[in-house]
Amino acid sequence: MTIGVAAAGTASFALLYAPQPVLAQLAADYGLQPGGASLAVGVATGALALAVLPMALLAGFVGRRRLIVVSICVSVAIGLLLPLAPSYSVLLAMRALQGAAIAGLAGIGAALLADRLGRAGVAAAVGAMIAGNTLGGMLGRLLSGLSVDSLGWRGALAVVAGFSLICVVVTIIALPAAPAADAAVEPHGRRPSVWAGMRAAMRHPELGVQYAVAFLAMGAFVALYNVVGFRLTGAPFDLSPGLASLVFLTYALGAVSSAVTGVLTRRAGRRRVLIGALFVTAAGTALTVPDALPLVVAGFGVLTIGFFAAHAVANGWTAAAASREARGQASGLYTTCYYLGSSLGGTAGSVVFGVAGWSWLVGAVMLWLILAAVMAGWWGRSRPAAGTEPVTIRVNAL
Prior knowledge:
It is found in: Cell membrane. Helices cover 80% and strands 0% of the residues. It has helices spanning 2-17, 23-30, 34-37, 39-62, 64-81, 88-106, 109-174, 191-203, 205-233, 241-244, 253-268, 270-287, 293-321, 327-356, 358-382.
């Protein structure tokens, strides 16, 4: 079960962010500005955000295991067809469908593990799933970035799709067949509680702050990663796309950061750690301004550490603050805002870079991060800071 879901996460998130390192090549091929090229990422993450909650509801009718298998098969099939897209508009339409398909795993993977493994085994299994998501996000970027020099962007995307196909085969073999109860429709008597939980998740101001933090911080993070390839392959660095893609190795630092955040949160409280993490992200962003490659790489390392820590705290805060009946809906809304931030913020940041350059992008991103920190601080002052209780952290991979 654990291997199957981890392999599904690896395939899904490799496909989701595979175009990010080749945006400069897409722009050159189709005559696009950075903002237009970034839509290759933005439409997929936006479609994922909008499809998370509908997919979670659909799983109650068709079964979680079946939905996951169908979703990843569809996303890989689209990935194999992407290099054949005859136009950029067709490519964007295919990416939107691919993002919606990936939502089938993103929205229900953890729930499937909890149902099948129970409390005793779910913690380790969810950790393995998160590791697969993280590994997939990094490998997808690296495989496409390292392949584009010799194969072009179409060949690079095909390489990622081929890798993901192998992962899907592993998933189909490893995931045990669903018991009959898994495909059962949710009892009618429980449906009103679902909508009551949704209302509670939307009206709670403490949860609203976490949704805003997810939107702003993720938008800032993806905006920087969307256009770093443009900056590093242009003057004054003039790196090859393959060398420029190595900056995505800093992404691995996020796994370490999110792993230790729980300990810091229990000691210092959620509010302090969240605000501190957002300012670390802003500090790393500021480091990237000088035209010095070591500082740019170091800055991306620091901002990645800060972002993943902030995301882990906000995600855990959402789970802790939501009532029992609203916990699932709150998690879904957090995930929706998280990927909407990726879509809208990532695209907006790319437009800023295309019009005004890197320094203006850094300024915009830092404003978003400061706004998120102010909101977190405002809520923390309005009530005693929580954080001494155990925190459940479920990190969505990028």
